[in-house]
């Protein structure tokens, strides 16, 4: 069976949920892997969307899915902030050590 547009949206949503679960466990390698999977799905969706359209009820579901994906993304970013700050501080320390 060929996936339809909604299958792609649902798969991307599932990927974002899995990314959030990995971020909650601080498994950043898994977050990055899942982000790659989602990027492939998004590109496949773009290609598929060129020749397809959604029915009105599917557009509403798409909107709900997109909102959930954005919420998941925001939560992942909040969880990643301390990690990103740690990386920034480590890089600053490494630069200071090299310069002195």
Fold topology:
Blueprint: H1 5-24, H2 28-49, H3 56-99
Helix pairs in contact: 1-2, 1-3
Question: Can you put this structure into words, describing what you see?
Answer:
By secondary structure, this protein is mostly helical. The chain has one domain (5-99): Methane Monooxygenase Hydroxylase, Chain G, domain 1 (Up-down Bundle). It has three helices and no strands. The longest helix is centred in the C-terminal third of the chain and has 44 residues, at 56-99. The chain starts with a helix and ends with a helix.
SSE order, one letter for each helix or strand: HHH
Cα distance, first to last residue?
Answer: 62 Å
Under the CATH scheme, which architecture would be assigned?
Up-down Bundle
Work out the count of structural domains: 1
How many alpha or pi helices? 3
Give the number of DSSP strands: 0
What is the C-level CATH assignment?
A: Mainly Alpha
- Briefly note the CATH topology name: Methane Monooxygenase Hydroxylase, Chain G, domain 1
What is the percentage of strand-forming residues?
A: under 5%
Helix/strand/pairing class, anyone?
mainly alpha
Q: Could you estimate the helical fraction of the residues in percent?
A: over 70%
Question: Brief overview, please?
Answer:
The chain is 86% helix and 0% strand.
């Amino acid at each position: 069976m060929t996936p339809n547009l909604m299958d792609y949206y649902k798969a991307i949503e599932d990927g974002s949920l899995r990314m959030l679960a990995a971020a909650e466990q601080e498994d950043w390698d898994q977050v990055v892997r899942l982000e790659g999977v989602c990027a492939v799905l998004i590109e496949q969706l773009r290609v598929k969307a060129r020749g397809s359209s959604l029915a009105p009820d599917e557009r509403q579901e798409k909107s709900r899915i997109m909102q959930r994906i954005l919420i998941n993304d925001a939560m992942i970013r909040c969880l990643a902030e301390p990690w990103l700050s740690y990386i920034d501080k480590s890089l600053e320390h490494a630069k200071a050590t090299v310069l002195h």
